[in-house]
Design brief:
- There is one protein chain.
- The protein has six helices and eight strands, in the order H-H-H-H-H-H-E-E-E-E-E-E-E-E.
- By secondary structure, it is an alpha+beta fold.
- The radius of gyration is 26 Å and the shape is elongated.
- The N terminus is likely disordered.
């Protein structure tokens, strides 16, 4: 009996493309989920500027899901299909990861040239989300895994990564290793010029307690941005709880500007070398999104 015939027609090639494409899309989606989990698990190492996580984040989940799905298909067009074409043309299936890296390098070069970005960091940001799904898809293709097999392996790897993220978040919270701490500065360090909004508004704090505000950001009751200018005074208060997901003790600057009405306290953020002042605009109970207005040294 002769050897069974190997089909290499259009249908077989289409099936091969489908398996590889599906593998990359599933791997890209799992990669995005893990990246989000890592971001949340390490949130204690960053400054949340008193915002934390509120209900608006959960309301955005459907939109974020749609964005991830669209990004997965964009990855298929920009990475997977070109890599498939190159590997088929050269007849070396094992070279898919190398071609993925080459495609990432080409895209990084285009982006760095078009937007005047540093090539090294651009390459890392391009190759990071771009190459790993191609590697996973190439593995699924060579193992002849169907959609179910690929989904099972991607799901298992994603689940393990999520468990590791949860464990890491627990350890970070319990031990405090790498946790962000606001700077603790002496009062005289706050005296001077502060700017925000790309220079759109300014605040000058005098050493003797005088304050001058220029178009300082305010929020009206309806949630509309407004500005206030005038002179007044400022006082300094040593750290107390800031609220937010991580209730860190922060130093505060309290302003009293004539004609501006009651003002929120400005809390300290940043680092001792590059301090910032921020004020949380909006309330958790209203319908308008909360955000932190930030001032920094010019």
């Amino acid at each position: 009996m002769g050897m069974p015939e190997t089909h290499t027609g259009p249908a077989a090639r289409a099936g091969s493309r489908s398996r590889l494409s599906t593998g990359s899309e599933l791997a890209f989606t799992g990669q995005c989920i893990v990246a989000g989990a890592v971001f949340l698990a390490t949130s204690g190492m960053r400054d949340d500027h008193g915002l934390g996580i509120d209900s608006s984040v959960f309301a955005a989940v459907p939109l974020m899901t749609l964005v991830v799905v669209l990004a997965a298909y964009l990855h298929r067009l920009l990475f997977t299909l070109p890599v498939m074409a190159l590997t088929r043309a050269l007849g070396k299936p094992w070279s898919a990861p190398l071609w993925g890296a080459a495609v990432a390098a080409a895209y990084a070069g285009l982006a760095a040239t078009a937007w005047d970005l540093p090539y090294g960091w651009t390459l890392l940001w391009t190759a990071g989300p771009g190459v790993l799904p191609v590697v996973a898809a190439s593995y699924a293709h060579h193992r002849s895994l169907g959609w179910t097999g690929t989904a099972a392996r991607v799901g298992a790897a994603t689940g393990i990564a999520l468990l590791l993220c949860a464990l890491g978040a627990f350890l970070l919270e319990r031990t405090g290793i790498g946790a962000y701490e606001p700077p603790r500065l002496e009062r005289e360090r706050y005296a001077g010029e502060w700017t925000g909004g790309g220079g759109a508004y300014r605040l000058r704090l005098g050493e003797n307690g005088e304050a001058v505000a220029e178009n300082l950001a305010l929020v009206a009751p309806a949630g509309v941005w407004d500005g206030c200018s005038g002179t007044g005074t400022w006082t300094f208060e040593r750290g107390r709880g800031s609220g937010g997901l991580f209730d860190r003790a922060r130093d505060r600057v309290t302003l009293r500007i004539e004609g501006c009405g009651p003002l929120r306290d400005w809390q300290v953020a940043g680092t001792a070398e590059r301090p910032e002042l921020f004020s949380v605009m909006g309330d958790r109970d209203d319908l308008h999104p909360r955000y932190a207005e930030t001032l920094h040294r010019p």
